[in-house]
Amino acid sequence: MIKTYYESGMGLSTERQAVVFDFGDCYTKVGFAGEAGPRSIVPSEVRCPKDGRTRKVFDAVKADEQYNLLVEFIHNLYFRHLLVSPKDRRVVVVESVLCPTSIREMLAKVFFMHFEISSLLFVPSHVVALSTLGVNTALVVDMGATETIVIPVYEGVAVLHAWQAQPLAAKAVERQISDMLQEREKSNQSEGYANLTEKMIEDIKVRACFVTTLGRTQKAREDKPCPCPPSVNYLVGPGSNMLNISGDIRENAFNILFEQDADQISVSTMMLDAITKCPIDMRKPLAENILLIGGTSMAVGMKARIKEELSYLAASAQYSEKLKLRTFKFHSPPAKENYTAWLGGAIYGATDIVSTRSLSKEAYLKDKKVPDWVSLIYNTLNEGVKRSI
Amino acid sequence: MSSISSHHDAKPKHDLKIALHAIVCHESKLRGDITIGAHTIVHPRATIIAEAGPIIIGESNIIEEQAHIINRLPPGADPSSQIVMEIGNGNVFEVDCLFESTKMGDQNVLEVKSHVGREVEIKSGCIIGAACKLTGKEVLPENTVVYGRNCARRIAMDKPPIQTLQIEFLTKTLVNYHHLKKPRSANS
Amino acid sequence: MAYLVRNDIVQYACTCGQLRPISFLYFCRHCLKLRCGFCVCHEVESHYCSNCLEILPSAEARLKKNRCQACFDCPNCLNTLAVRGTTVSVRDPDDPGKVNSQKKYYHACFFCRWTTRDVGLPDQAVQTVSANGWAQKNTSNVQRITVLLEHAKLLGMLERHEREQREKKFTARFRRNFTHLPGLTAAHVRKRAGLPPELPAPSTIKVNLAEFQPAVAKETVPELPTDIFTKELDIGTVTTLTQRFAQPETQPDSIEGLLPSYKHLSTKQSQRCRECEHNVSKPELNPASIKFKIQQAAYFYVPEVRIVTLEPLIGGKPSEVVIVFINPSQHPTTLSFITLQEAEEEIKQHQTEGTTDTAVQQGEAPLSLSSLTKPVTVVEEPRPIDISMTGEVQLPAADVEIVLPPKDDAAEYDDSGEIQQFHDDPKIVIHRRANKASLRFTVVPKTDIAGENCVIGFAFRYTYVNRISTPAIATSEQKPQKVQLCTRIFMNCGKILEGTQ
């Protein structure tokens, strides 16, 4: 084991550890590079000092507002959760490849101009998630808050043309729960629905709901429903308002992710479509290395259902000609799925890459732009030219 | 314990039955048919109003200042109907709490400024946290702890102990600073 | 006393364009400018536990993951746990007849009544639980992650090797220069030159890489428990997201798995002006102390403005507003009033003057070595003030100067009652007392916006005695300098009432 200059064990290095951020639409994971888990998982919200409302950080419309919200949020992250000074420290931001350029630019501006960090490195979440496994090839499915993004990664390179993204994630499930409860209320005149906040619906989704099996769903479609699971009494606010969440809602809320909509798209078809778009030789290794990350994939019964769906769809008429795959294998990363991407960033942040590939403060201040894969200026390959990244 | 008085026409204003060794301060506000068990302590400025029927309070309870135990007549109800409010042993009613329900078991704690409404039934060992309001209709299982701004619930492992030390201390010191009501049994 | 609670009535414009009440602003004595929490650089000074008020040095804090070693947080409601002791009779192992009474300790939360006994943790014999006591870590994951980290570092080293070989940065000549000096190794040489540490040879890296075992995908996945369809669910036994995120690495599903976590520390912060790099606020190290070593709050340097009385505001009609100015310093100050436009022009003038100065300096800078080592200062551009005026204020004439006497802390105990003679226009200055003066202004709210707040803005100049000698001033002159400073104020005068013209 090489121990001369890189001291083994975490946290003993004399060098200042980089800070790793994974900004999500709903929750942000923040911690130090080289550690086994984030220090905190916080909701991406900021308390507005003027009116006391909590606002989502990535909800703003105007650039000024977004800047202020980000400053406030990142300030809280540094001084309440990380307890370090932001100045002259390296930062690694794990972001989705489909993150809008305006958010990236805004983040860079906030970090460099306001917090005066020393260097910033953006890493794509799907690629770095593989470093938590130590493999180079996998089909990475990120089931987050607002959308599910599927990107195959082959030999460490993201196969971008095969990307799939759909808004079939946590928010969709919560909307489904809300709709189902509203229907119940109309028919049964049950109380308590009116007082439900977003947080409560999220709580119901996490604690009471689960992902049912494919068999039961199919039977229900054929009008042969199996007996429902028991209902749950949920306390809504002070007072004794109890909301009865029927077993039907508990079982079927997550089905919205697997019901094929008008375009016949569901989470499982997204995965198979992504595999189909890849060259033939890649398909088998991808199907046998599936990695599920993101908070929504932690729902009870999610992995089992996805496996069932994939096996069923691969054999069905839709895909049996295009894909000759029948086995699907899943990875289990050494971390909970909701921070696996963060862990990937933390592993990257502990290596040399953070010093060689980061965007330094001086380089940023020259032209105030962040190199982006979307822009061709940074994409032309020229062997002899030294680039700032 | 005494029998429940059943005079429909004339409700005696102070039909108090105080058991031996109960400490009831004179400045407390007691109205209606109230029975107080042994070793119970009623602080000054506590309010016990038996409007809609008698209140029977058990032994070793502590009713602190500004606590309100009110057997209220619901609006529009028949004034002659009598609903008995029964309170068990070893309960603590902290400052400024409001208790309107009909039944209470043993060893409960109503913390400061808590409010228990008419329809709630409390068994034993429950702790209603500070400023928590329970207004709906429900039966709290044993050893429930209600806490927090949203009245979150959880079931505790064991009941809160009877405050024996506190009762002894108050029995000794309250005498020195307050006038007490004399114990009266049903027969006297 | 409304200014203590409603502090958004009178707001000052900070140099960066943010509006803040005076209690939220700092005054940099070196730049002579106002600074707010937004434009000041925050730094962490010290870590301490908010429960036991123990200071941890930053290196130790980092090792212990910013957690206090003695205090615990309730996993159920995230409040602090208290230690309770019970006496337990334990049979003496040596002498079976004897029964010893031992003190055993457990932790309890007074808020939600959760105890460590609820999750089955045994009572401890010592009052302070050591680090190996209760909080358990997920060690198998940690080991695997260590292996992954090493693997990633090796890959990084390989990549660097390839890149360096491509670019051929090292020359043999460079290394020979210093190694003749005794006691210096190649590692020291590299460190002095600022180069990253030397890489081991690629062959050794590859050998170590071969030892690594990548993760293996499995066909079996965690199945849905079949009793979920039949078993009654008591939702109180399932943990909420907040409870799970308090322990991110384990995230237990049920409340049986909730273990107490070590209490998160808090920090004391110091603030620093970005332009001159001097500290504007520095607290004392002792967590129990609320004093400051350096406290340059604007409240102590800039005259405070408060509204005393208001007449009802009706659109289009001039109303009287009485405003009191309070002089915080130990020197008398002279106030004069100008409009916002004049104030903004002055600020722009100062800025252009400032940039011409630095341009002269910058002309020399690229040649000097100091520019290479000096860190690049980043200053955010001041933004325009985000407020719209809904009223006009008629200020006294530009030549009217109001003198405010210095703040005298002993004035309230002084019965001699010396009255100083000021030549004040009685229409403007209504009342004086010690270091305060109440002035009458006229406000004309805009028409047709009844129901909205009437916001007025103006600026005032005041003299400030600068006791700090900057390098710009020659060191021979040690006398304190009097400087004219200008501050912009925005006031919310209340709702404009509906009224007829």
Automatic annotation (TrEMBL), chain A:
<comment type="similarity">
    <text>Belongs to the actin family.</text>
</comment>
<dbReference type="Pfam" id="PF00022">
    <property type="entry name" value="Actin"/>
</dbReference>
<dbReference type="InterPro" id="IPR043129">
    <property type="entry name" value="ATPase_NBD"/>
</dbReference>
<dbReference type="InterPro" id="IPR004000">
    <property type="entry name" value="Actin"/>
</dbReference>
<protein>
    <submittedName>
        <fullName>Actin-related protein 10</fullName>
    </submittedName>
</protein>
From TrEMBL, chain B:
<dbReference type="GO" id="GO:0005869">
    <property type="term" value="C:dynactin complex"/>
</dbReference>
<comment type="function">
    <text>Part of the dynactin complex that activates the molecular motor dynein for ultra-processive transport along microtubules.</text>
</comment>
<keyword id="KW-0963">Cytoplasm</keyword>
<dbReference type="GO" id="GO:0070840">
    <property type="term" value="F:dynein complex binding"/>
</dbReference>
<dbReference type="GO" id="GO:0007052">
    <property type="term" value="P:mitotic spindle organization"/>
</dbReference>
<dbReference type="InterPro" id="IPR011004">
    <property type="entry name" value="Trimer_LpxA-like_sf"/>
</dbReference>
<dbReference type="InterPro" id="IPR027777">
    <property type="entry name" value="DCTN6"/>
</dbReference>
<comment type="similarity">
    <text>Belongs to the dynactin subunits 5/6 family. Dynactin subunit 6 subfamily.</text>
</comment>
<keyword id="KW-0206">Cytoskeleton</keyword>
<protein>
    <recommendedName>
        <fullName>Dynactin subunit 6</fullName>
    </recommendedName>
</protein>
TrEMBL record, chain C:
<dbReference type="GO" id="GO:0005938">
    <property type="term" value="C:cell cortex"/>
</dbReference>
<dbReference type="InterPro" id="IPR008603">
    <property type="entry name" value="DCTN4"/>
</dbReference>
<keyword id="KW-1017">Isopeptide bond</keyword>
<comment type="subunit">
    <text>Subunit of dynactin, a multiprotein complex part of a tripartite complex with dynein and a adapter, such as BICDL1, BICD2 or HOOK3. The dynactin complex is built around ACTR1A/ACTB filament and consists of an actin-related filament composed of a shoulder domain, a pointed end and a barbed end. Its length is defined by its flexible shoulder domain. The soulder is composed of 2 DCTN1 subunits, 4 DCTN2 and 2 DCTN3. The 4 DCNT2 (via N-terminus) bind the ACTR1A filament and act as molecular rulers to determine the length. The pointed end is important for binding dynein-dynactin cargo adapters.</text>
</comment>
<keyword id="KW-0007">Acetylation</keyword>
<keyword id="KW-0963">Cytoplasm</keyword>
<keyword id="KW-0832">Ubl conjugation</keyword>
<keyword id="KW-0175">Coiled coil</keyword>
<keyword id="KW-0597">Phosphoprotein</keyword>
<dbReference type="GO" id="GO:0001725">
    <property type="term" value="C:stress fiber"/>
</dbReference>
<keyword id="KW-0206">Cytoskeleton</keyword>
<protein>
    <recommendedName>
        <fullName>Dynactin subunit 4</fullName>
    </recommendedName>
</protein>
<dbReference type="Pfam" id="PF05502">
    <property type="entry name" value="Dynactin_p62"/>
</dbReference>
<comment type="similarity">
    <text>Belongs to the dynactin subunit 4 family.</text>
</comment>
<dbReference type="GO" id="GO:0005813">
    <property type="term" value="C:centrosome"/>
</dbReference>
